[in-house]
Amino acid sequence: MRPIRSICVYCGSGEGLDPIFKASAQMLGRMLAQAGIRLVYGGGRIGLMGEVARSVLDAGGSVTGIIPEFLKAREVMLADAQELHVVADMHARKKLMFDKADAFIALPGGVGTLEELVEQLTWAQLGRHDKPILIANIHGFWRPLLSLLVHMRESGFVRPGLEVKYLVAERIEDVLEMLFTAARAAAPQDEEERDIIQRM
Fold this sequence. Notes:
The protein is α/β, with parallel strands linked by helices. It is built from seven helices and seven strands, in the order E-H-E-H-E-E-H-E-H-E-H-E-H-H. The protein has a seven-stranded parallel beta sheet, sandwiched between helices. Strand 5, helix 4 (111-125) and strand 6 form a beta-alpha-beta unit.
């Protein structure tokens, strides 16, 4: 597995009702910038995705936004991103987000966030990639999904040898360390990654 230099963050185009969701998105953005990790995300400036992106930029970090043409107005495209791609449709968006990311984090979000997360879990399950996937279970937001995944396994639909591999963090402060640990377990740590960890 290659070193983690960029992380794709999936999250809502709304802020949710619990203030901790917004605070966690902002903290994650600052953490990414401080660690020198590029944010890859959906390109909008509203909701949690806007919070994490603006927090990265405000802290001096780098942002890659990827947004479909038809969502430029609805999600209010973040023109301040250093790298911005306007693509034809959702399929192109998800493909480019995957290509540009070394790991994935799912913050709280809606159906679109769920779909993006589950797609990455499926691709990993089928052996199409080995990039770390982390579910940020802020205030137990993803608990119903985690219970469903256990239920699928216990019901025989996730069979031995086809386990769904993911990390779960209960605190946003833990996500980068957990991703780096997963990457180190899969490949020798290089000098650049050691420098990133020391800056955290």
